[in-house]
Fold each of these.
Amino acid sequence: MSQHEKPRKTQRDELFNSPGATSPFCFDEQVAAVFPDMIQRSVPGYDFIINGIEQFAERFITPATNAYDLGCSLGAAALAMSRGSQHIDTQIVGIDNSAAMVERCRIFCEAYRHKNNIDIHCQTIQQTTLENASMVVLNFTLQFIEQSQRQAIIEQIYQGLNPGGVLILSEKILAPNPQVNQLLIDMHHDFKRANGYSDLEISQKRTALENVLIPETLTTHHQRLANAGFRCSEVWQQQYNFCSILAIK
């Protein structure tokens, strides 16, 4: 692969615009091909979160340490950490278990200028050894992992972080109050309609994600982080039912 190879052209997300397109959602080649468009039109505040990751990297990444993007998809958070790091000896590691995502991620990371070394690996988080980390990002990743495995993953991250290190955890969340939860869902659907998705696409994608993306309450996330040993965790960004949490070891 040439160092100057450009990312493949991003396609518009039309995966759910035909009746019957309700197979369980997975990060295959079809999703990888439309992912930048999909996430821009589906996740409120996504660009703000990526910009925030760059700012946190400037403040938390320390010399000669590692930074991890777990569930890296096309590497937006990995590239943001590289931009934000003030140290040329930062090693950035991207992990994703989708071969289609990893293939495209490598092309993206080679095509866009970055000052730190970025290594992308196709494997699960559970297979990953985290060490000497000053920053870890889980950007809309934990929600796709079996709930029974989530505490162990947060503890794995905590053990790999250096004291003072930071975890950025972004997730779709549940509001404890059913009325408020439905309100946030409805507002999110309005957001998607404003970005060009039809009611059919919204409905079919929701069906495809059922039992694949399992959201949890903020209380559950904060308790899990506290149980792992993080000394503090706070929401630093939220729009509708999408939020990002900052946790410090």
Amino acid sequence: MMEKEEIYSKVLRAGRRTYFFDVRATKAGDYYLTITESKKFTNDDGSFHYKKHKIYLYKEDFSEFNSILQEMTDYVIAEKGDEVISDRHQKDFKREYDTPAANTATEAPSTTEDNTPAESRFTDIDFDDI
């Protein structure tokens, strides 16, 4: 199905996600809203692609949709506050990982069974040896 011409549009960029809010017209000339979430994914070769998910929202559902959306967002903020927990968790995790107590390798160098330093376990090779 070919998309209708956009009447009015807004874009919300949020990290690797982008949200598109588009007002479009039906064949009868009435308006409806499409909300598209687009996520950018990077392939192993460095190229990228987007995955999109779209919601079509018609005028007869605006009021109830808006009411439920407001209720749900209010609930999340009331229960968990404005701070994004995953951001705080990542910072805390990095701090814990970088502390000497959490990183035993900083306390004493690791050794092999014959008490030689771990870094000497590796053999230097030349590509001619392969």
